[in-house]
Amino acid sequence: MSQPGLAEVPVSAARGAFAAGAATLAALYVGNNLPSALYALLRSTFGFSALIQTLLYAVAVAVIVPALLVAGPLSDVVGRRPLMLCGLVAFLAGDLVFVLATGTGWLFLARVLQGLGMGAGAAAAQAMLNDSAGQDARGQRRASRTATACVTFGLALGPLAGGLLAQYGPLPRQLSFLVHAVAVALVVLLVVRTPRAAGSVAKRWRQPRLGVPPVVRRTFLIAGACSFLAWAVLGMFSAVVPSLVSGLLGSANLAVAAGALTLMIATSGFVQFGAGKLAPTAGQAIGLVVLAAGLALLVVANEAGVAWLVVPAMLGTGTGHGLVFTGALAELTVVTPPAERGAVIGSYFVVSYLGLGGPVIGVGLLSLAHGLSAATVLVAAVVGGCCLVLAPLVFLEIRRRGNPQ
Questions:
Q1: What are the sequence ranges of the domains in the chain?
Q2: What distance in Å separates the CA atoms of residue 347 and residue 61, rounded to the nearest whole number?
Q3: Which of 1, 136, 142, 199 has the maximal Cβ count within 10 Å?
C-alpha cells in the first residue's frame, strides 16, 4: 500500500512542504547560473581557454539530464525529501569546491557536483510542489506558477548576485559561493522539517521511459525544434554573454556584465507569466521571429561596437525564449494523452537540455580559431537563421490546422 501524499496531511504541513519545495528550486537554480558572472574572473585566475569556459558550463548540463531521469521516478518511491536533501548537499559540496579550487580540475568537479545536485533535487522539489498544492486545478496552477518563478527568476538572480558580490565584496572569487552555500544550508534545515510522508506514492521504482507516440509526433517535432533553438540561446548566453558584454563595453565591472544576462532571463520569466492567453503554436512562431531579431541586434552590437544595442538584444532574446518555452510546453501538455505525458514531457526536456548544452560547445571549439567574440557571433547568426527558417514552417502548421490552438 502506498504512503499517503501531502493532500492527506494537515494544511500547515502542506504549506511547509510547499515552501520547502519552492525554496529548494530557487536555491538550486540560483546556484546553477551563479558561475556565469564569474567565468571571466576564473579565466584570468586559472588561465584556461574559452573552450574550457564553455565546457565548464556544458558539463553540468550533461550530468543533469541522466540525474533528472533517475531522480524523478525514484522520488516517487523513497519520498521527495531524501532526494531533495541529496541534491542540496551535492550542490553545497559544489559550492565549497568552488571556494577551495586551486586549478581547473577543481572547477570541473564543482560543476559535476552542481549538476548532480540539480538533477537529484529539482525533480523531487517540483514533485513536492505539486503534491502539496492539492489535486484541484487551482492548486496545480499555483504550483506551476511558483515553479516557473523559482526556476526562471532563480536563473536570472544567480548571475546578478554573483556579479554584485564579486565586484563590490571581499574575496571576489569565493564570496558568492560562500553566500550561496549558507543559503543552501538554511534550505536543508527547512527541508528536514517537512513531513516524512511528503511524496512516497509508488510501490517500487519504475525505469525512466522516454518516447513520443505517433499521435503527437508531428507536434513534438515542431515544439522540440523550437525549444532546442530557444534553449540554445539561453545556454550560449549563460556561458559567454557576460564575457562578451565586458569586451563590448570595455569594462571589467562584473556586475554590469552579468546584468545583461539577468535582463534576458528575467524578461523570459515575465513573458512566461503574461503569455497565457496566446495560442501555444502562435506563441512559438512569434517567439522564433523575436528571438531571431534579438540575436541580430546582438550581432550588430558586437560588429559595430554599439554598446546600447545590448539592451534591446537581451529584451528580444528573452521575449522570444519565454514565448517559445511557454508555447511548446503548453501545447505538448494539452495534446499528449495523460498515460503518455510523463514520457513525452521527459523527452521534451531532454531535447531542451541538449539545446542548452550542445551549441555552447560549438562556441568553445570555434573560439580556438576565431576568438570567443567572433565564435559567439557566428553561432548566434546560425541559430538566428535557423529560427527564421523554422518560423514560417510553424505558421504553415497553424494554417494547416485551421485553428491556432
A1: 1-193, 209-405
A2: 15
A3: 199
